[in-house]
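Is 2-acetamido-2-deoxy-beta-D-glucopyranose placement plausible here? Inputs below.
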Amino acid sequence: MDSSSPAASESARASFSRHWKTACSSFVLGCLLAITLQVFFFSPISPDPLELPRPSSSAPFLPTNSLLQKVTKLGEGFLKNPEDVCVDKEGILYTATRDGWIKRLHRNESKWEDWRFIEDTDTLLGITVTAAGTLIVCDTEKGLLEVGEDGVTVLASHVNGTKIRFADDVIEASDGNLYFSVASTKFGLHDWYLDMLEAKPHGQLLKYDPSLNMTSIVIDGLCFANGVALSTDKDFLVVCETWKFRCLKHWLNGEHKGKTEIFIDNLPGGPDNINVAPDGSFWIALLELTSSGFEFVHTSKASKHVLATFPKLLKRITGMHKKAMVVNVATNGKIIRNFDDPKGEVMSFVTSAVEFEDHLYLGSLNSNFIGKLPLNAIA
Ligand SMILES: *[C@@H]1O[C@H](CO)[C@@H](O)[C@H](O)[C@H]1NC(C)=O
Ligand SMILES: *[C@@H]1O[C@H](CO)[C@@H](O)[C@H](O)[C@H]1NC(C)=O
Ligand SMILES: *[C@@H]1O[C@H](CO)[C@@H](O)[C@H](O)[C@H]1NC(C)=O
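Reply from A.M.:
I modeled the complex. Tokens:
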């Protein structure tokens, strides 16, 4: 039989419960401390605030529409996340897919051709065709690649003694030099979100001179250097700085040669790829960096550390998978028109827009097709 009095057992229970509570709160405190240490001392980033664009009375954002939903889907199911698109003189369309292929589509054909296999990799981004008809591709692992009949040649893998880690987009200038962006010298392709959270200028614009077989730094300290385009008169380049919501103009010829100025800023999304249109204007694909309601993340260091440590949370916060935006910008840096898919119902994460024969060809990191939009049939 139990000899203890009910009062004694009551006090034993109270004491046990007290100890239990203390143990629990110590455990919780310990966990919090561990998480805090993990988040702040072992965080892979040292963040700066990222300033989001704001519409102003002099530069209001254009109203959102759903015109991008009018695309027809080319190569659906056959093109894995085609990030960029280019067209050669014969009108053949090329794209680099995230399974290591360069695929192409001949005029008036509906079937895409598996043209060249680079290797089993998801690291191919920007693509361009030179005046001589050679295909150039950015590989975030290997650098700048030339893809020809005889196979693949690495044109540039190092600059100033450092390995090129995140080649992003490329264009040929009139003198045959290849200008290409490096999104980040600190973080690689799969850690792009750390570069966004850190919001520091780790990007570069590089130049590969084929006559000297030499690569040099043209502009250093860009905030995620992304798309690169050449003006119709070949006098200047435009390079996009995604985390700054702006594009820079870099003069190659004329009285301002070598100078860099702002081409357009305060864009309503982070600019990704840029391409010149036949009329001399530019098409820029914009990324929605933040879902609405999560803007604070970009100014809160604590949130940035937490997200850098627990990246699974990030998909809720960024808006790339929810929206697509493309803007047409005149040579004077004014937005002419915009095409959107506000909820990404047909296309989201649109990363490039190329105009060819009155159609816009759209690449995306969240689609298995290329969108084709008839420009004459829509506003
Ligand atoms: C493609 O089709 C268009 C119209 O259907 C035609 O005008 C053009 O000549 C064709 N091009 C080729 C290369 O077959
Ligand atoms: C090139 O490398 C040298 C030595 O490593 C360094 O001092 C210099 O700052 C680098 N230049 C640029 C533009 O990064
Ligand atoms: C270009 O230079 C790289 C090293 O910087 C070298 O490996 C490569 O063979 C050179 N290419 C040509 C065509 O000379």
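Short version: The chain has two domains: 7-42, 68-374.
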